[in-house]
């Protein structure tokens, strides 16, 4: 049945429609007076998100996690809530016996663990005509070719009804409201969306909420759906715009756990980020202080002056890796190399106990995941340091008097529970602030982190274990039919797994170190297994311990997890707690002592440098003093002659004065002051003044002579003191040199001094500073001891931990957080992090998951693949955390943008925001973080220099020539190659080393049939080879979506007709074609032994397409080649592509082979001749 057939026009009862809300008065506000204010940036981001369709889809099943059985047509027959249809799609996952029995009833109306709802999709807007109209209004740009629209549509609105057809909630699309505003040049009003949304939702809900003559609520009918749709078209001014609006034609079945909030878990129509952006905007407009990380990210913190260049400033590197900042704890595995350790140390120094943000630039294969593991390990250690201070761990949980209701089987129409309660405990502040969340815009990156950390291989053979049975259960599904998953069978399955050394598990894990939450489906899975499950959940374990302590646990009520993890009475758990604390403290003291010794070694080098500098200063001062000691005979003669002249002159003046006194006129002449008397008097005073002046000159000369003698004496004495000090310093430097010689013998090449850097860039970057095997082994043991502390701490407080899990289950399921509960949301979250130290999420899911978490509350946010994240998508998550580490690479896949560039430019113009500073794809979260980093590195590229955060340089993924290609086009040849071991892949044995297969042929819309034929031919050669022992590790990527789609169709046909994929060892063709064949975007974050890249677009007329594919930046080619660990093959026209952008680097480093197909002549024994066009 076609679920997309529009509603029929049958006549139904009259529907009363509310009046339309008048938005015509909304006008663009005046442009800001200042450019690039934070308020303007936030408003422009809000407007951008309003215009961004959140859930574009082609087929309705895409709105249900590709479950077509959850899509119901609306065009004929009974509506789903009217007829007898199976209203539960979750029974196959339910462990309740009554649910399993209900599964046999074809017409059952629900699952005892679930409440069913239906989400009516009230029409959709095809994005292709909408985008064309936007481009017509704002103009085209070259980047429009990157928009991946196709036949996708955007939902206009939704209505959620319960199993009786009664309205529960409605949703309105911001895109449906904002598109006409944008087409009418009212971009400035888009930031007013939230208030408009609330008003529209109230009116829309009125349409669906009707009652009969008795006052009972009536179920929703087709007429009501049709009327609501028509009202929305008028309300949003969508009519007569040539948008080819699609009418309502289907609804979606939604299943919720009893107690989950329907309104918070139904389809998301609008940007996930608008609420957070508006919260920040309100704070800015009110003048409230923003979290430090947000200030840094948005450029409100002072710009770092003279940031340290960790590529060239050796002294800055030496200080960054100084043992003062060395973490005490380490993740099991290989030690970190120089700049990895620098990044971890800087995090310790810059962020430990302080708020802020730091940036790490990680090119592909340079150990970003390894770096993040050590960051996680140190957070676990820090929390363990706080835990061991509690004699009784239960004392860490304070009574709040707040309770959460839960657990009634009698639920309201929206699924809210009515009775039952659990306590909410406060958590001691010392145990808070250590939370770690890994977030990314890339689903694959989040999945990789979530899967890698708990995997047994991640601890490199260490015997560390942490609730392993729960982790195994979370990441695996037992091969037992749902109906038979009773206690006995589950216990038998897990016991058998344990007895067989965990063989048979799809994923063998070491512990519950991390969990993927984020989207509601992941949270449900986590809660189902870790909370609800009766046999293997932690809740069941805590309940068993609590009952054991109370003396009423029986064999029949003991869950499977208790048998595996161990069931100890309280006295034994208390003894284990004390032992865990003692072991932890003993290791901690040993490591602190050892690190103090390393500090002495590092400080000895610093002291030696300071001593040498002082000796140089003394030498210069001694030279200066010696200059003062030098006697100049000419100067002595000058002083002697000068003094003699003055003394002779004084003698003459004395004689003159005596003669003058003898010639003194008589008394009467002097009395009457006759002329002779006046003459005499003048002469007498002249001689007297001359005598006084001469005497003064004599004193001055004598003083100068005396000062000169004193200076010489002082210089002589100072010179002696300096020589003595110099002698002492020389002795001290010799002692330091002797000590350093001993230290160097102990620490070897890891001793960081001038000689360390004289080894050269490639050599010293591969060294682990100040690390040696014995110390790293102790740090590994401390990591294990810290987790033992966590485990014992948790088991000492089973009642409190069970209550915390119940509270977390409630708020995760949409339990309303009121003013009484709000202050303790952070305590509930921090309590969950006691159990699961790391939680991963996408940015898209984070605002909903943490919606009740206040800003600047949680501990550490680690952003992975930040180069792909739009800045407005990251800022809300940064807001909630005290400390943020941003890790990524701006030279891989850029942020995905779904709006034409000219619209973004128009938004920037409207809000006076600089496009190149704030808007993707020009700017990513990584770029903004790099700007504010106090530690940076400068790379020179063909498109100019770029400054990035702390650089990671040692590449371990790719062999040659992939490494050199990536290094040359993107990283200024600064990456260092720690080449992985060579692996004789089936591809190299069959196709030879990395090669460009030069294919001649034409194309149609970039798809070259000849290139597709070449790929099939190469795969046939693989099929001829001996059957591989393991599944081939291969990516097949294309430069264009059209080419990728054609390749999938081609390979699918080859498999269906000739089992081609099976014959080369592919076990699941559907999964391979979905996850391993696609555009370059498909493989971002992944890696494979071999990669085949099909270029397409060989025609002369497609030069623009080729330029677009490889672009003005090396990003796309960089991602493509850096996925391949062993071999990289190119299929396409050499003449057409080899001179495009960065392709010359590719062509010069790959072998080139003119491709000659054997396809037309060959017939293989395993299948008939393939024709690539017989699809």
TrEMBL record:
Pfam families associated with the record: AAA_12 (PF13087)
Positions in coiled-coil regions: 601-663, 691-739
Source organism, top-level taxon: Bacteria
Disulfide bond found in the keyword field: no
GO molecular function terms attached to this record: 5'-3' DNA helicase activity; ATP binding; hydrolase activity
Keywords per UniProt: ATP-binding, Coiled coil, Helicase, Hydrolase, Nucleotide-binding
InterPro entries reported in the protein's UniProt record: Coronavir_polyprotein_1ab (IPR050534), DNA2/NAM7-like_C (IPR041679), P-loop_NTPase (IPR027417)
Domain DNA2/NAM7 helicase-like C-terminal residue range list: 954-1133
PANTHER family: DNA-BINDING PROTEIN SMUBP-2, DNA2/NAM7 HELICASE FAMILY MEMBER
Name this protein carries in UniProt: Part of AAA domain-containing protein
């Amino acid at each position: 049945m076609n679920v997309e057939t529009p509603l029929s026009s049958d006549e139904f009862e009259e529907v009363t429609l509310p009046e339309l809300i008048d938005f015509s008065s909304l006008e663009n506000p005046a442009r800001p007076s200042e450019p690039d204010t934070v308020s303007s940036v936030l408003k422009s981001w809000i407007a951008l998100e309003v215009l961004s369709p959140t859930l574009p889809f082609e087929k309705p099943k895409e709105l249900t996690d590709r479950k077509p059985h959850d899509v119901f047509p609306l065009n004929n027959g009974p509506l789903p809530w009217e007829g007898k249809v199976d209203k539960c799609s979750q029974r196959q996952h339910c462990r309740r016996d009554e649910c399993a029995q209900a599964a046999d009833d074809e017409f059952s109306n629900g699952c005892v663990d679930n409440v069913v709802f239906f989400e009516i999709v009230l029409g959709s807007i095809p994005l292709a005509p909408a985008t064309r109209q936007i481009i017509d209004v704002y103009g085209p740009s070259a980047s429009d070719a990157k928009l991946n629209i196709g036949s996708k549509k955007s939902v206009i609105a939704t209505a959620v009804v319960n199993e009786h057809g009664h309205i529960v909630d409605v949703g309105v699309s911001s895109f449906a409201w904002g598109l006409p505003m944008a087409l009418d040049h009212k971009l400035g009003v888009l930031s007013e969306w939230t208030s408009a949304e609330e008003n529209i939702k109230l009116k829309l809900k009125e349409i669906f909420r009707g009652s009969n003559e008795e006052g009972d609520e009536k179920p929703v009918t087709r007429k009501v759906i049709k009327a609501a749709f028509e009202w929305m078209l008028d309300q949003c001014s969508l009519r007569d715009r040539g948008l080819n609006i699609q009418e309502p034609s289907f609804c979606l079945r939604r299943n919720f756990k009893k107690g989950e909030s329907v309104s918070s878990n139904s389809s998301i129509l609008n940007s996930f980020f608008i609420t957070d952006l508006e919260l920040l905007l309100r704070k800015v407009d009110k003048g409230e202080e923003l979290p430090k990380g947000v200030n840094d990210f948005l450029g409100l913190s002072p710009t770092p002056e003279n940031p340290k260049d960790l590529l060239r400033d050796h002294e800055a590197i030496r200080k960054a890796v100084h043992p003062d900042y060395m973490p005490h704890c380490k993740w099991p595995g290989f030690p970190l190399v120089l700049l990895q350790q620098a990044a971890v140390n800087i995090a310790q120094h810059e962020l430990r106990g302080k708020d802020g943000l730091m940036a790490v630039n990680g090119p592909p294969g340079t150990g970003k995941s390894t770096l993040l593991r050590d960051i996680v390990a140190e957070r676990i250690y820090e929390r363990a340091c706080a835990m061991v201070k509690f004699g009784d761990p239960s004392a860490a949980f304070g009574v709040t008097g707040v309770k959460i209701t839960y657990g009634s089987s009698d639920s309201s129409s929206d699924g809210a529970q009515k009775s039952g309660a659990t306590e909410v405990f406060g958590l001691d502040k010392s145990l808070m602030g250590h939370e770690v969340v890994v977030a990314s815009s890339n689903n694959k990156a989040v999945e990789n982190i979530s899967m890698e950390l708990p995997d047994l291989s991640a601890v490199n053979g260490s015997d560390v274990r942490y609730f392993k049975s729960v982790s195994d259960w979370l990441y695996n599904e037992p091969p037992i039919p749902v109906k038979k998953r009773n206690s006995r069978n589950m216990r038998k399955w897990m016991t058998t797994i344990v007895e067989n050394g965990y063989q048979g598990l799809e994923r063998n894990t070491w512990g519950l170190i991390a969990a993927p939450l984020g989207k509601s489906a992941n949270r449900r899975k986590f809660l189902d297994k870790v909370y609800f499950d009766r046999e293997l959940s932690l809740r069941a374990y805590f309940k068993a311990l609590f009952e054991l302590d109370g003396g009423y646990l029986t064999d029949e009520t003991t869950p499977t997890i208790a048998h595996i993890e161990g069931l100890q009475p309280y006295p034994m758990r208390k003894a284990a707690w004390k032992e865990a604390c003692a072991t932890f403290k003993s290791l901690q003291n040993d490591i602190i002592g050892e690190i103090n010794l390393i500090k002495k070694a590092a400080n000895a080098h610093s002291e030696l440098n300071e001593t040498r500098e002082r000796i140089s200063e003394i030498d210069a001062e001694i030279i200066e003093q010696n200059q003062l000691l030098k006697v100049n005979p000419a100067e002595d003669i000058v002083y002697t002659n000068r003094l003699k002249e003055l003394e002779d002159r004084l003698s003459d003046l004395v004689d003159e004065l005596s003669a003058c006194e003898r010639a003194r006129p008589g008394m009467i002449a002097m009395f009457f002051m006759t002329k002779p008397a006046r003459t005499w008097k003048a002469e007498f005073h002249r001689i007297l003044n001359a005598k006084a002046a001469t005497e003064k000159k004599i004193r001055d000369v004598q003083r100068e002579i005396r000062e000169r003698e004193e200076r010489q004496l002082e210089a002589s004495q100072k010179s002696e003191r300096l020589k003595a000090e110099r002698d002492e310093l020389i002795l001290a430097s010799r002692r330091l040199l002797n000590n350093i010689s001993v230290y160097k013998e102990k620490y070897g090449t890891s001793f960081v001094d001038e000689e360390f850097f004289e080894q050269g860039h490639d050599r010293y970057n591969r060294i682990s500073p100040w690390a040696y095997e014995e110390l790293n082994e102790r740090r590994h043991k401390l990591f294990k001891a810290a987790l033992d502390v966590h485990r014992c701490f948790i088991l000492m407080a089973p009642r409190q931990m069970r209550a915390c899990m119940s509270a977390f289950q409630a708020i995760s399921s949409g339990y309303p957080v009121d003013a009484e509960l709000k202050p303790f949301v952070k305590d509930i979250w921090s309590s969950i992090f006691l159990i699961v130290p790391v939680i991963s999420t996408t940015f898209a899911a984070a605002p909903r998951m943490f919606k009740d978490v206040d800003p600047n509350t949680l501990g550490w946010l680690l952003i992975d693949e930040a180069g792909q994240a739009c800045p407005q998508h990251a800022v809300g998550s940064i807001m909630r955390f005290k400390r943020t580490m941003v890790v990524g690479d701006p030279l891989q896949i850029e942020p995905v943008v779904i709006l034409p560039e000219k619209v973004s430019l128009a938004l920037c113009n409207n809000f006076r925001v600089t496009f190149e500073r704030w808007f993707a794809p020009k700017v990513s979260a990584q770029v903004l973080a790099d700007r504010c980093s106090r530690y940076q590195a400068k790379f020179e590229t063909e498109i100019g220099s770029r400054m990035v955060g702390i650089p990671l340089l040692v590449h371990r993924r790719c062999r040659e020539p992939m490494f050199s290609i990536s290094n040359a086009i993107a990283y200024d040849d600064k990456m260092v190659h720690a080449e992985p071991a060579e692996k004789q892949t089936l591809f190299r044995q069959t196709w030879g080393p990395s090669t460009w297969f030069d294919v001649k042929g034409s194309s149609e819309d970039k798809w070259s049939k000849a290139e597709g034929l070449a790929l099939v031919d190469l795969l046939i050669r693989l099929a001829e080879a001996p059957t591989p022992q393991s599944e081939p590790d291969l990516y097949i990527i294309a430069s264009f979506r059209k080419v990728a789609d054609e390749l999938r169709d081609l390979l699918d046909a080859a498999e269906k007709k000739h089992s081609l994929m099976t014959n080369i060892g592919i076990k699941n063709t559907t999964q391979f074609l979905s996850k391993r064949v696609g555009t370059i975007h498909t493989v971002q974050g992944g890696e494979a032994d071999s990669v085949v890249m099909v270029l397409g677009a060989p025609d002369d007329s497609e030069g623009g397409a080729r330029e677009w594919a490889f672009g003005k930046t090396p990003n796309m080619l960089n991602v493509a080649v850096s996925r391949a660990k062993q071999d990289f093959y190119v299929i396409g026209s050499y003449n057409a592509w080899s001179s495009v952008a960065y392709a010359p680097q590719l062509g010069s480093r790959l072998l080139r082979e003119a491709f000659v197909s054997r396809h037309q002549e060959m017939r293989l024994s395993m299948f008939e001749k393939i024709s690539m066009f017989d699809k």
